[in-house]
């Protein structure tokens, strides 16, 4: 039995230190030793645990790691792949991994250097997929493990698996969303990704229904508002700036020119979202106040992070939210993720939970 195990988490290049700090925090909490290889701007962190795979998988999950776009578990590592036939050793390595796979992805880090491999991968993948089909290693089931081939370069690959219930559903953890033609700003993609990345399917179905009410603080020009109105929700858009004609034309938007830190709704609403550029601690307090006091049931919000000590800024926001929510008498959930469409910010989700 192997008493060490390795995970690879993909991230936006430049955030490796933050991701490694998260691995270290999870391991410290569980008393599991280990160390990270986190090369600056590499776009991934490799963490070695002094624990077998099953134990390491209990210590760290995809949801725990805010800065991870994807989390995969290393099963085999191949270096010095022969240029003339990479397929044979890769298939032999995959054959040493038990079970069948729901999906197979050839991946690299999200760096310019790694992207130069993309034409090689396009040529290589059909051969691999055909061989896996012939070997009956693929199965048409959503809950079957994902198989990831994470290429460092064309001669070095990690063969990894992930549990679809505990992983990003997108190749390379990158949410490739189509920019809706009518949406007024690209930041619409951020909220679209947050709905998929931070909510369960049940939560999406119950909270994004036509007729429910949403408040958008810092709404102009209306990319986030558009995500709601395109699903038939009614939006109060709070911003001193102008809202775009495309969202106003839906007839589902009331534009209020006011300070988002002061304005309050007359009745409770399902959603409050906040994209105002402000101190993370100020946004955290505002969001906690809305959910704790029952002004809204759920909130999606952006925390703009400082260049350094990003992890600390999130922890400070988390503590402020914890402090306010713990005296609210409500059950609640708080999640954060550094989404593909986030740059120097993370997206948070805070909601009160109803029972029964
Ligand atoms: C990043 S933009 C929002 C973009 C918007 N989410 C979208 O998708 O189009 C931030 C907005 O917050 C607004 N804002 C900043 N501080 C505010 C405040 N105290 N009250 C209301 N709006 C504010 C700005 O006017 C700006 O329009």
UniProtKB/TrEMBL annotation:
Query: Which keywords annotate this record?
Result: Cytoplasm, Methyltransferase, rRNA processing, S-adenosyl-L-methionine, Transferase
The GO terms this record gives for MF are: methyltransferase activity
Documented EC number(s): 2.1.1.186
Q: Which domain of life is it from?
A: Bacteria
Q: Which Pfam families match?
A: FtsJ, RlmM_FDX, RLMM_N
Q: Which residues form the Ribosomal RNA methyltransferase FtsJ domain?
A: 185-279
- Which InterPro entries does the UniProt entry name for this protein? RlmM_FDX, RlmM_THUMP-like, RNA_MeTrfase_FtsJ_dom, rRNA_MeTrfase_M, SAM-dependent_MTases_sf
Biological processes annotated in GO: methylation
Instruction: Give yes or no: UniProt keyword Amino-acid biosynthesis.
Output: no
Residue span(s) of domain Ribosomal RNA large subunit methyltransferase M THUMP-like: 85-162
The RlmM ferredoxin-like domain extends over 7-71
The yes or no answer to whether the keyword rRNA processing is present is: yes
NCBIfam families hit by this protein = PRK11760.1
The protein's matches in PANTHER family, at most eight in alphabetical order, are given as:
RIBOSOMAL RNA LARGE SUBUNIT METHYLTRANSFERASE M, RIBOSOMAL RNA METHYLTRANSFERASE FTSJ DOMAIN-CONTAINING PROTEIN
Q: In its UniProt entry, what is this protein called?
A: 23S rRNA (Cytidine(2498)-2'-O)-methyltransferase RlmM
Provenance organism: Niveibacterium microcysteis
